[in-house]
Design brief:
The complex is a heterodimer of chains A (170) and B (793). In chain A, 32% of the residues lie in helices and 16% in strands. Chain A is α+β, with helices and mostly antiparallel strands. Chain A has a five-stranded mixed β-sheet, with helices on both faces. Chain A starts with 7 loop residues before the first strand and ends in a 7-residue tail after the last helix. Chain B has 793 residues and is an alpha+beta fold. Chain B is 28% helix and 24% strand. Chain B contains 19 helices and 29 strands. In chain B, strands 3-5-1-12-9-10-11 form a seven-stranded mixed β-sheet, sandwiched between helices. The longest helix of chain B has 28 residues. The radius of gyration of chain B is 28 Å and the shape is globular. Classes of the chains: A alpha+beta (170), B alpha+beta (793). The structure holds FE2/S2 (inorganic) cluster (2 copies). The site of one FE2/S2 (inorganic) cluster (FES) has 12 residues of chain A, from loops. One FE2/S2 (inorganic) cluster binds next to loops of chain A.
Chain lengths: 170, 793
């Protein structure tokens, strides 16, 4: 397929509350659209085949792998990326804060996917047990941390959200 | 001194940025850059008869296509052999783009630049290559057999044969009361950082300068390689690595073909160009490690004391040797661990195979060495019917024997002399932590419940902080803020925090005022790289020495300004004060102004400085041996490596039906000398243990006999998720500071991963009651082993 035969599709996405209009080929991955067409490079790509979870975003509230979706299929969707987890006053959100306190990241490459996954997980189950915290992150790969501190961070995030009145997302 | 910061669990300053999605990894930079894709060999061994690129440039959006024939000058030469060694008589490296022949699946053949990666991949698919197939050499057995050769001019596939000997092990073994022979195998695994390789380059035609960003572990090394390959002066090239998404060794190779092809294309096209590899490319065209076969002969006395040890091993280094013999040399020396055998000899062959190249992966040859030695210790204990810890204790170097000279040469070409340590102390701590002495009763109870459990331990010594040097530059701004530049890159080890802790304590400034930039050749053009657990030792020492130098200069200038002696001064929280005279103070920022005789009043700090006068009016404003500015640059270059040590123990349970292996308890004792930030060290241990579990139980590179890597995805190459790692890790530290550097640091980056294969083999063997000699071990392999041993019973 050459460029001139590559038909572009107009697309409207609401990302972290801001509307974006972009034109992309049908085969453009949502992860690439977010990173390179919209310029939100916080969402990372570790495998591009749906296994590592680094590219996890929230689409209409659900955690999904943006490397497994064509951007065009997200037409009209409400998306939250890692950039949207920070609170409106500029402070770190509860999950971000917990990662910082618990040393839940090293290189930080897998981190955006964990943060979005856990934010969605805690909304569903605000007070997880340790085992439930493990389950919550069991689909994401991290090559640096060995996960123990990430599990701690899930539990700590639940506490912080509680202290702040129960809101886990920004 | 201000507050004590070295040794404190300071929260990381880099996290804010990374947690907000504001990291700057190579692929995040230079939006709008053209993108590259690589045509890679689909065959493990073939002659290239013809490459047809016609029509590729006709595709709209495609800007360039390169094959070997388009390369000129140094670009047309083979890539560098980074670490030559006299034993490496048949070293070979690949070309940036294959010339005439390909020797592994994944070798780069053509390079295409287009508007975006999708189009570049389309274009790659258009290229037609005619191959003439050649027989592939896959695995150590095939390489040794040498019925086929990877390189025509190396018919035996042996790139290097290396030997070292201390004493006369052959006769020691022959005359020893007991002797044993073992064959031990370890599979290939890989670093597999979550971020793959990525390079971006921008050529500025007005200034004739090249900017390169790469996810490398060595920006200075890459800079030199790019300059050499592109025929540029070093001064025309800047290499920056703001954030790197994990390295674990694989990103120390410099240059990767793409790291020189991207700058070449950027210069030729006059447009920024980017290459970001995908995961399959990472599997088939970066690097692996670990694959080795070992044969051990050992002679020992009734106490289990080793009298003679002879090790012969074969190292599979893949199709080329860009990184020399580092991995097998480390295995051959570091397998001695905390022990002092009566005599020792080692010989290895480094072998060509038609598979991906091998370069250091976290631990770098040590996991294999420790596996060899610790399996040997376990076998001795088994033969003598002794406790495994007793046999080890009988062989330990004792605390009063340091510095301990093994009489061998280490990886850095320096003598293998351990600086400090306390191995019996570590063992005592480990036994307590895991409950070694209570294990038999635990096992009995488990047995009564129909469960199979086993305990294992493994000890290691890790040469850390290899030279030759690292440097630091520290500048105090007139605002009082302290800017630090080191040449090392960071792949997540928290350098911005750990080194700021050192500067804050050594210089006497608030931690928040220190800002560190790493991996940017503009700030520190002399550096080696982040690998071999050397960052804390080397850069930490350089940072400390430089901070002391700046402190000295600050005190000298302040003494003049305050008209007192240097000895009366102290720096606290960024303010220099006269001891016992609380009103006599001068801010460090003010001293920075005074340090520069150019006194335009740019800001309040310079106005404040006008109340002080420094310098002898009878002499030039800048003295002969001085420089303007409150800054300093210093280097640390050690005589030889430091040697960290540690011991791990694990309790496993093996399922009697399914042979599934689960971890019940994991304990680590560790001595990395002075801890800069215990939280970061703990994180390094956690991460290392997870990688070790992967290497011991899951990860392997499955090559078929034609040289295809059949598990080149995260779906098929099993790396640990949270569900595969120990639920908790008990950690205890012992600190025997190194006498070789100003802070007594030893380095901790790789420790967690080093003993794992030995450890799990020991524990599984203990649970099952038959020898485990090949790692990693999967449930189905354990299941098969069980049937073999039942058959024999
Ligand atoms: S990048 Fe999407 S799951 Fe790995
Ligand atoms: S922090 Fe590096 S991959 Fe998770």
């Amino acid at each position: 397929m050459t460029n001139d035969t590559e038909e572009l599709h107009d697309l409207r996405l609401v990302v972290n509350g801001t509307p974006y209009e972009i034109s992309v080929p049908a085969r453009r991955l949502l992860s690439d659209a977010l990173r390179h067409d919209i310029g939100l490079t916080g969402t990372h790509v570790g495998c591009e085949h749906g296994v590592c979870g680094a590219c996890t975003i929230r689409m209409d509230g659900k955690p999904i792998r943006s490397c497994l979706l064509f951007a065009v299929s997200a037409q009209g969707a409400e998306i939250t990326t890692v950039e949207g987890l920070t609170r409106s006053d500029g402070e770190l959100g509860p999950v971000q804060q917990a990662f910082k306190e618990c040393h839940g990241l090293q290189c930080g490459f897998c981190t955006p996917g964990f943060l979005t996954t856990i934010t969605a997980g805690l909304e569903e189950n605000p007070r997880p047990t340790r085992e439930e915290a493990v389950d919550m992150i069991a689909g994401n790969l991290c090559r640096c941390t060995g996960y123990q501190n990430i599990v701690d961070a899930v539990l700590r995030a639940s506490e912080i959200a509680d202290e702040q009145g129960g809101e886990v997302s920004a | 001194m201000t507050t004590k910061l070295i040794g404190e669990k300071v929260q990381r300053v880099e996290d804010e940025r990374l947690l907000r999605g504001l990291g700057q990894y190579a692929d995040d930079l230079v939006p709008g850059a053209l993108e590259a894709a690589v045509l890679r060999s689909p065959h493990a061994h073939a002659r290239i008869v013809d490459i047809d690129v016609s029509g590729v440039l006709d595709i709209e959006g495609v800007h360039a296509v390169y094959t070997y024939d388009d390369l000129t000058g140094a670009m047309a030469d083979p890539l560098p052999l980074l670490i030559p060694h006299p034993s490496l008589t048949q070293g070979r490296t690949q070309y940036a783009l294959a010339k005439d022949e390909v020797r592994y699946v994944g070798e780069a053949i053509a390079f295409v630049v287009a508007d975006n990666r999708y189009l570049a991949e389309d274009a790659v698919a258009r290229i037609q290559v005619r191959f003439e197939h050649l027989p592939a050499v896959v695995g150590i057995d095939a390489a040794r057999e040498a019925s086929n050769a990877v390189h025509d001019d190396v018919p035996d596939n042996i790139a290097a044969r290396f030997e070292q000997r201390v004493g006369d092990p052959a006769s020691a073994i022959a005359s020893a009361p007991h002797s044993l022979e073992l064959d031990l195998h370890v599979e290939r695994s890989a670093s597999m950082p979550m971020e793959g390789r990525a390079t971006v380059a921008r050529w500025d035609n007005d200034t004739h300068r090249l900017q390169v960003w790469s996810s490398t572990q060595t920006s200075t090394g890459l800079r030199a390689a790019v300059a050499a390959k592109l025929g540029l002066d070093l001064a025309q090239v800047d290499v920056m690595t703001p954030d790197v998404g994990g390295g674990f060794g694989v990103k120390i190779v410099h240059p990767w073909p793409e790291e020189v092809l991207v700058p070449l294309a950027a210069r030729t096209l006059g447009r920024p160009v980017k290459f970001t590899e995908d995961r399959r490319e990472h599997f088939i065209s970066s690097a692996h490690e670990r694959g080795q076969d070992h044969h051990v002969q050992v002679g020992f006395d009734d106490d289990g004391r080793v009298l003679g040890l002879s090790v012969r091993f074969w190292h599979d280094h893949g199709a080329y040797t860009p990184y020399g013999l580092i991995v097998p040399i480390i295995t051959s020396t570091q397998l001695l661990g905390p022990y002092k055998p009566g005599s020792y000899e080692v010989t290895f062959d480094s072998l060509y195979t038609n598979t991906v190249i091998v370069t250091p992966y976290r631990g770098a040859g040590r996991p294999q060495g420790v596996y060899v030695m610790e399996r040997t210790m376990d076998a001795i204990a088994q033969r003598l019917g002794k406790d495994r810890t007793e046999v080890r204790a009988a062989n330990f170097i004792q605390p009063d024997e340091f510095p301990y000279d093994h009489g061998m040469t280490f990886q850095d070409g320096r003598p293998l002399i351990y600086d400090s340590g306390d191995y019996p102390g570590l063992l005592t701590k480990l036994k307590d932590l895991v409950g070694w002495d209570d294990f038999e009763s635990y096992r009995d109870n488990a047995r009564a419940e129909g469960r199979r459990v086993g305990v294992g331990l493994a000890c290691y010594v890790e040469g850390t902080g290899v030279g030759p040097y690292e440097g630091a530059h520290i500048q105090v701004e007139t605002s009082g803020r302290v800017k630090v530049a080191i040449g090392l890159t960071s792949q997540g080890q928290g350098h911005q925090t750990a080194f700021a802790q050192i500067v804050a304590e050594e210089l006497g400034v608030p931690f928040e005022d220190v800002e560190l930039v790493s991996g940017d050749t503009r700030g520190m053009p002399y550096a080696v790289g982040t690998f071999a657990s050397r960052a804390a030792v080397m850069s930490g020492s350089a940072v400390a020495l430089t901070a002391r130098m700046v402190r000295e200069k600050a005190l000298r200038i302040a003494a003049e300004a305050l008209e007192c002696s240097v000895d009366d001064l102290d720096i606290n929280d960024g303010v220099i004060g006269v001891k016992g005279a609380p009103d006599s103070t001068i801010a460090l920022g003010t001293v920075a102004v005074l340090s520069n005789p150019l006194r335009y009043a740019f800001d309040e700090a310079s106005q404040a400085a006008t109340q002080f006068s420094v310098g002898d009016p009878g002499k030039p404003p800048v003295a002969e041996d001085d420089e303007p500015g409150l800054e300093g640059r210093d280097f640390y270059s050690p005589e030889r490596s430091t040697f960290a040590a540690g011991m791990h123990a694990v309790i496993v349970e093996t399922d009697p039906e399914t042979a599934e292996i689960s971890i019940l308890k994991y304990a680590v004792v560790h001595d990395c000398g002075t801890l800069i930030n215990p939280m970061i060290v703990q994180g390094q241990i956690h991460g290392g243990v997870a990688q070790g579990v992967g290497g011991a139980l899951y990860e392997r590179m499955e090559y078929d006999e034609s040289g295809q890597l059949v598990n080149a995805s995260f779906m098929d190459f099993l790396m640990p998720y949270v569900t595969e790692v120990p639920t908790s890790i008990e950690i205890d530290h012992l600190e025997t500071p190194s006498p070789l550097n100003p802070l007594g640091i030893k380095g901790a980056g790789e420790a967690g991963v080093i003993p794992s294969s030995a450890l799990f083999a020991s524990a599984i063997e203990d649970a099952e009651g038959f020898p485990i000699t090949s790692m990693p071990i999967s449930p189905s392999e354990l299941f098969a082993l069980r049937s073999t041993h039942e058959d024999r019973r």
